[in-house]
Design brief:
Layout (H helix, E strand, L loop, with lengths): L6 E4 L4 H12 L10 E5 L2 H11 L4 E5 L6 H8 L4 E4 L6 H15 L12 E7 L17 E3 L3 H14 L3 H10 L16 E7 L1 E3 L12 H12 L2 E4 L5 E6 H18 L11 E2 L4 E4 H14 L17 E5 L1 H4 L7 H9 L1 E5 L2 H6 L7 H16 L31 E4 L1
Parallel strand pairs: 1-2, 1-4, 2-3, 4-5, 5-7, 6-14, 7-11, 8-10, 9-13, 10-14
Antiparallel strand pairs: 10-12, 13-15
Pfam families: Sacchrp_dh_NADP (PF03435)
Protein name: Saccharopine dehydrogenase NADP binding domain-containing protein
Organism: Apiospora saccharicola
Length: 412
């Protein structure tokens, strides 16, 4: 690429996107040190704050209403060399519009600023590969490996034909777009596309606005409010985790590889699913970690405010309806989020990009302590709505509630 590649970032005011923007702006790597990034932003006040913080020579805010403005998004993408979609992974139409816009960029190869094909870096999540232990069949021993990205892609495609899921559909729309070519293609008219399929993201974000993750803060708030934790199913659902700073560093490494090596180390298309993993945890242990932190700090048990909480640590086995009170009422998201098995083995980022997450088990445990402090201070009002752009697009399973079972106390 030229010395002035054009980059478009969505999600700059969010948890992941804000941290990615901060890491891009603060990187000392020569290839990204002076990058100017266009950012999609809702609201002039936020746009002004981004400019005040990073400078008008580093960020160029573009005001938009929402992700349904696909014509605007496609037009913007056509004017950029790299699109980083760190906004909503649950909006297939806007993700497809980004790739479509980049495909128009390739048609002007002789006049644009790029000496290599344009790239799309898409953000997705591991619920794409989760089982359905409550309403369907459980696969507790299944583990998917990004070293065989095509197998993961084929698995997702088959799953989406069986049951459409917007986040998975968005990922497939990006990687399977007709304009996208695979990693070994010499087709100059093709678009490169990679999806970073994140597990549970934890840690304090570094952006200007949304700095909280989802899973641990949501469970911590539940524990503090009710005095006990919850588990959906037998608690053996499993998820990997990664610190948001390490995740953001992976995006920076991807951008650097595009600029410095013409993306020689990035898989694309059906091979382009990357799992950024640093550790693994059972779902019941997330509730346990929240309880341990709350009891150790003396936040629990409590009484005297009209609410008497359990005197000992309890994890309540709940039904789908109760779990869905933490997922904007959506039963599918509750099931995959709190009971699903989605073990993912990630080696591509390490072996091909030299990515080495620095926040491991110790940081994961410390996060419970940190999140408790934020929840008690009233600083964690985040909900699942913040990562789902269009709730009505999600499948709803009201018919599966009957017979799932009620709540059961589990003494731990």
């Amino acid at each position: 690429m030229s010395s002035s590649p054009k980059i478009l970032l969505t999600g700059a005011t969010g948890y992941v996107g804000g941290t990615v923007l901060h890491r891009l702006m603060s990187s000392s790597a020569p290839s990204v040190q002076n990058l100017k990034v266009s950012v999609l932003v809702r609201g002039e006040e936020r746009a002004d704050q981004l400019v005040r913080t990073y400078g008008e020579d580093r960020v160029a805010p573009v005001l938009f209403r929402d992700y349904d403005e696909t014509e605007l998004i496609e037009q913007l993408a056509s004017q950029h060399d790299i699109v980083i979609n760190a906004g909503s992974g649950f909006h297939p139409a806007s993700a497809e519009a980004m790739v479509q816009g980049l495909s128009q960029r390739t048609q002007a190869t002789n006049t644009n600023t790029s000496s290599t094909r344009p790239w799309m870096l898409h953000t997705s999540g591991c619920s794409n590969v989760s089982d359905r232990p409550i309403t369907g069949e459980a696969f507790p021993n299944r583990e998917l490996h990004d070293a065989d990205g095509t197998a993961v892609y084929d698995f997702e495609k088959s799953e989406n034909e069986r049951e459409w899921y917007p986040q998975r559909a968005a990922e497939l729309a990006v990687l399977g777009h007709p304009a996208v070519t695979d990693s070994d293609s010499e087709d100059a008219s093709g678009v490169g596309a990679l999806s970073i399929q994140a597990p549970c993201i934890f840690g304090e974000g570094e952006g200007l606005f949304q700095r909280a993750g989802l899973m641990v803060p949501i469970m911590m708030r539940y524990v503090v409010e009710k005095g006990y934790g919850f588990q959906l199913g037998d608690g053996t659902g499993v998820i990997d985790y990664v610190h948001v700073a390490d995740l953001a560093d992976l995006y920076v490494r991807c951008v650097r590889d595009i600029l410095e090596t013409r993306a020689q180390n990035l898989p694309s298309g059906a091979r382009g699913i990357v799992f950024p993993t640093a550790g693994r945890v059972y779902m019941k242990d997330i509730a346990q970690g929240c309880l341990d932190a709350a009891f150790a700090a003396g936040v629990l048990p409590r009484g005297g405010d009209g609410v008497m909480t359990p005197l000992r640590k309890y994890i309540m086995q709940v039904d789908l309806q109760e779990a869905a009170t933490t997922t904007a009422g959506n039963l599918v998201v509750a099931e995959v989020g709190w009971s699903g098995h989605r073990a993912t083995k990630g080696t591509v980022a390490r072996t091909q990009l030299g990515w080495n997450p620095v926040h491991g088990e110790e940081a994961w445990q410390q996060d419970f302590v940190d999140e408790l402090r934020h929840v008690v201070a009233g600083q964690r009002t985040v909900t699942i709505d913040s990562c789902i752009a269009e709730k009505e697009m999600l499948p709803v399973r009201d018919e599966v509630v009957a017979g799932v079972g009620g709540s059961t106390a589990v003494h731990v």
